[in-house]
Structure prediction request, 277 residues.
Amino acid sequence: MSEFAGRCVIVTGAGRGIGRGIAEAFAAEGAHVLLGARTLSFAEQARAAIVSAGGRAEVCGLDVKNHQSCRDLVTTAVALFGRVDVVVHCAAEIAHGGLGAVSDEAMEAGFASIAKAAWWLLDAARPQLAAAPQGGRFIAIGSVNGTFVTVPHMTAYGMAKAALDAFVRGAAGDVVRENITVNAISPGLVASDNALRVLGPEGLAAYGATIPVGRAGTPADVAHACFYFASEKAGYCTGTTLKLDGGASVALRGEGGEDDVLQVRLKAQQHVLPEPD
Prediction:
């Protein structure tokens, strides 16, 4: 039996993309999963898939930009499952554009949904996480664009993700004596439904071919990293950000050389990113 069987896992941004993949993976391991999402129709589809596969999941409407909505998500989890063991914060609103090209409203929405929401969620879940028998786990899904690389036209998004990394380091120290760990995962390109919709099959394949391991990541790759941070084996690991990008941020690979690789990536990054959950 999986060590996650019967544990309550909250996942934000769980309606589609990486968040849905994480939720489905934990449910397949026997966890009771609460899917937090802004668009309930997406979350209901994810829940139906989990239930049809024999898992247990429930849905809760969530606006991660709203403090009370984050509190309500935790309250709902306790009401449904009686506990909270793991929180995975994956939701984000993406401000697309460089300096001078992002409105104040879009910048604030990005920062609130990414960094402020992490603060609110951990604060709300703290008593439950502290009481978790196997140790409470808070996992933030960041981005290599936050700390490790810079991506054109994504300055505001990268700034918010960098703030998330700073939160993880600081908050880990705040709760370290409460049997709670706080860690982050920073993926590079992930072949989610969102990426496929933006880049198309050919663009996604071309970008993936420039990554040293030879492919884009998958939601399952991110979920497996979550498994480690959520496990009892990771009890000695806190305040850490794991880079998960197949080596893309430290090496370039391509038949046409470095310039060719950069052009492929830059072309892909010109696309307008999809709407969040």
About this structure: The chain has one domain: 8-191+218-251. Residues 104-130 form the longest helix (27 residues). The radius of gyration is 18 Å.
